[in-house]
Each structure stands twice: as C-alpha cells, then as structure tokens.
Amino acid sequence: MENEIFEKAPVHKAFFSLAMPVVMGMVVSLLYNMVDTYFIARTGNTNLVAGVSLGAPVFTCMIALGDILGLGGSSVISRLFGQKRDEDGKRISVFCFYASFLGGILVAVLLLAFRTPMLNLLGADQDTWTHASAYYTYIAAGAPFIILTFTPNNQLRTEGLAKSSMIGSILGTVVNIIFDPVCIFGLGMGAAGAAIATVIGNICTDVYYVWVLKNKSKKLSIDPRALSITGAELCQILAIGVPASVTNFMTSLSTMLTNRSLLPYGNDRVAAMGIAMKVNMIAVLVLVGFAFGAQPLTGYNYGAKNQERLKQILAFCYKFECALAVVFAAVLSAVARPLLGLFTENQELVRMGVSMLRWQQAGMLFVGIVLVTTCTFQSAGKAMGAFWLSISRQGIIFAAVLWILSGAFGYQGILATQALSDLLTAVLAVLLFRRYIVSEWKRPDRPRIQ
Length: 450
Fold this sequence. Notes:
Layout: H1 4-7, H2 11-41, H3 46-82, H4 86-113, H5 115-122, H6 129-141, H7 143-155, H8 162-186, H9 190-215, H10 231-262, H11 267-293, H12 295-303, H13 307-334, H14 336-341, H15 347-361, H16 364-380, H17 383-390, H18 392-409, H19 411-438
C-alpha cells in the first residue's frame, strides 16, 4: 500500500524509515563540515580561518531562503497528501521548484551589488577582509544553485522518497569534499576555493534531484505546464516557510553577533569559535535530521486528522530526541580537546575552543525540545508557534542574553549565552505547544486546508 508507512506502520518503524535517510544525509554533510574546517584550519592562517567564519552567515542565509519554499512547500504538500489531494500537491511542488531558482538569481544580484556594506556588517577588518571577501563573492554567485537544493531535498520526503533525498545530499557533499583540497591548496585559491567547492557540490545535487523528479517521483513534478498556485496556497506556504527561514536567518544573526562580540578579544577567538561551532554541528545536524526527518509523518497524520497516531508520533519524537541530545552533549564535552586538536595544531586555539564547545553542549537537551516542537508547528501549519520559536533561540532571546551576559561577565558571558538561550527557548516551546497543539486536541472540528 502506497501510504502504509504514513498510516499503518509501527511508529518507531515509520519514524526511522523516514528519518534515517535524512540523518545519513546530515552525517555526510557533517563530514563535509569537518573536512572543510580541517582544510581551512590547516592553512595555518588565522586570518583566513576568521575570514571564512565571518562569511559563513551568508551561506546560512541562503539555507534560510531555501527553507521558505522547501519547508513551507513540504508542510503544505504533506497535509494535502494526507487529505488525498495529490494533484494539488503536485502543482505546489512545481511552483516551489521554479520560484526557488528565480529567487536565488535575485539574491545573487543583490548580494554582489551590496558586497562592501555586507562585509562591513559581518565584521570584516583589514586583516580578514581579503579572505572574507573572496569567500563571500563566490558563495553569493552560487546562490541560485544553493537555494534551489532545499526545495526538492525537503519535498521528496513528502512522497516517501527519503532515500533519494539522502542520496542527493551525499552526492553534493562528496563532490564538495573532493574539490575542497583541489581548490584551496591545489589551485591556491584559499577561502575562495572553499566557496567554489561548495557551489560545485550544490550544482551536482540539483542535477540529481531533477533526474529523480523526472524519473522516480509519481506525486511531485517540475513540468512547467502544471505551474499554477492560488493566493490562499501561497499564503499557506509562506505562513510556514517564512518562520522556518527565520530560524536560519537568526542563526546567521547569532553567529554575526557572537563574532562581533569576540572581536575586541582578538581574531584568534573568532577563529576558535568558528572551529568550535563546526564541531558543535556534530550534535546539531544529527538532531535536526531526526526532527525534520519525521516531519512528513507528522504533517500527513495531522492532515488526515489521525489524532491518536499523531500523539504516539510526537511522544516518540520527544523521548528519542532528548535522549540523543544528552548523549551527544556528554560525549562531545568529554572528547572536546582531542576533537578540536584534529583541526589545528595551534594549542591556544584548541584551549579556547574547548571552553567554547563545552558551553555550547550545556544547552543541547533544550535544543532537542525546541527542534521537535518547531517541526511539529511547521508540519501542522501553526505559523505563529513556528514564528515565535524561530525568532527566539538565536534571535531576540539570544541577543538579549548576549547583551546582558557580555555586559555583566565579559568574555565568559559571551560563551554562556547560547546555553542560557537554549534553556529559555525550551521553556517557551513548552508553553507554545500547550497553546497551539494540546488545546486543539480538544477541538476535533479543526478546519482543513482550503
């Protein structure tokens, strides 16, 4: 039966069937992040490492833009499939594909036109400007291909094609890893080489996804003849996609604020934080993979109004995600020093990075709670719940906590900011879950997507 995994399979089996391919794709992306960090750090140029760290928020912003149509579209499509409205889901998938690519072209033009003020905003100085500018320029030029990737990557899972989604991620990452040393060292391009390798990897992923959509997908499409969308449907996509994208915009904001807060203490601390954040992604990417991997399952059963199965799914997700977060926090904290030592021989950077990484792990349990709750809101179309969480953990709560702690405790306050922000956002997530989900379970007459 085509929809058995969504409707009848045991919850744990359905969860891992959909989530594991996503997690595997995340693990490969994690491998790329680690290898990328390794090659950049091995240049031995602290200013180059800092320059790439300063330019990294631009790439995160592109992920955010990709999520508008990727996550927003997949949320609506999942619920439509749950209501057996397959043709409507197909139309929306076509719109999201072409809109994301055209939007990427516009983003590239704007980023390149405003390169100098953007680099100033990111905190580039005379020591890091050359490296940050080189990375920024090539990442900006590749915006259409980077942003496009996230639409089929998310939407293929709504049809149960999680393995194809995973293969696309793995393909792009492997290509990225291969071209990293070639471009950085072989061609002597430094920071620019790291950006070029990233763009090439995304282009390969896009080509693969186009092949899958044309040859394997039965419910999704890229046929421009099916391109049509109503105003109400677009609003549904944006209502979820915009809050989802805000999460990554806030990640860029928090990274930029952290880097600028650390600049008075020296570029070496910015470089150390860049390495520590990449290592922290070991835990975060896997947690994100499991949380978002279950999103089609949640959305489908919400759309089908299968309340009992939805409760079982959410209970399993919270328990599993939180347990995994605790394990990651303990392991990464224990092996922080040797792990960071793999990326740089500079023992001073390692020493600073250990403290940074352990502070980040202190809030990992709360990250798990926030991730599952955010994905639940996105799957169920709860735009306001998703929006408040999106602007909180690495946005307004983070900025407020950073301002207070850095003023009160200086450097150590900056390091503790993320952990306290995670705790406060988890409390907010619990309150919002009760407001938007638990209260609705008492109202079985909730409306369907129009």
